[in-house]
Amino acid sequence: MSGEPTDGSNDAPIGGALVAGSLSAVETAAPLVHHLTNDVTTSETANVTLHWGGLPVMADAPAEAGDMAAGADAVVINTGTASTTDVDAMVDAGRRANEAGVPVVLDPVGYGATPHRVESVGRLLDAVAFDIIKGNAGEVRGLAGEEATVRGVESVGGSDAGVPEAARALAAETGAVVVASGPTDVVADGERAYELSVGHERMGSFVGSGCMLASTLGTFSAVVGGDDGGADATTEAALAACAAYGFAGERAAAGDPAGPASYRTSFMDAVAALASERPALDVASRIERV
């Protein structure tokens, strides 16, 4: 799927039609998105996939993880609570998805916090060709070989300066489109990086918002990009997913929910409303090539 024309200085597919078209494609295809994911946020990731119009499935048993991946439309691998046995299943699922041409998203939660997490993500990167790698600034910097501080599963300290360069370097090394989430999201391939100024600070007020973005990326990559679409289409999928996700966050905050639990509910409602309405969105003014 192609986006709207761009101006001469910013060659991203930046039109609002990209988001609306992606949502329409999700509604038509109802893609099956297989998750091997964080035990803490299973419900959140399943629900956000469903509200976008996808079909979530969580089949992380080693006996079936690979079979489910081969028959899915996208696979999301999240290492937030992964044991060694879980990583075995993730490797199998990722390899089977690669063989079937199914796009695979990696969310390396807490990368750099412990040796086990570093080893687990390293195993996955050695064994699986990922279409999209999504992490916070600390995780992306760490994966790119830079010094970064991750405490638990959160990036702490440091500034956001240099994140586009780290994301672009990681993309060039892995062949994946890299998404660095934060107050300003970064989407990068091996040559280009874009900043998206979309979203709301309250999106960080509840546990699971980062995991839900990975599920959103999986849902969109199932219908825009992947093995048949090529690198440009995968970049489009990531841009559309991040834009839609951020606009849902803004819409949820507009009603000034009373607290974080109310905001989380409003956010889920906003996702479902965007998926249903597919409104015209001013995406162009929110994306800048850097």
Molecular structure report:
The chain is α/β, with parallel strands linked by helices and 290 residues long. The protein has one domain: UDP-N-acetylmuramoyl-L-alanine:D-glutamate ligase (3-Layer(aba) Sandwich), CATH 3.40.1190. The chain is globular, with a radius of gyration of 17 Å. The relative contact order is 0.16. The strands form two sheets. A nine-stranded mixed beta sheet has the order 2-1-3-4-5-8-9-10-11, with helices on both faces. Strand 3, helix 4 and strand 4 form a beta-alpha-beta unit.
CATH fold-type name: UDP-N-acetylmuramoyl-L-alanine:D-glutamate ligase
Q: In order across it, which strands form the biggest sheet?
A: 2-1-3-4-5-8-9-10-11
Q: So, CATH architecture? A: 3-Layer(aba) Sandwich
The number of helices is 10
The biggest sheet amounts to:
9 strands, mixed
Superfamily (CATH H level) name: Ribokinase
Number of strands: 11
Question: Any idea how many domains?
Answer: 1
Helical fraction equals 40-55%
Distance between the termini: 23 Å
The value of Rg in angstroms is 17 Å
Top CATH class: Alpha Beta
Mean pLDDT: 89
Strand content: 5-15%
Structural class: alpha/beta
Shape annotation: globular
Instruction: Show unreliable segments.
Output: 1-10, 151-157
Query: Order of SSEs, N→C?
Result: HEHEHEHEHEHEEHEEEHHHE
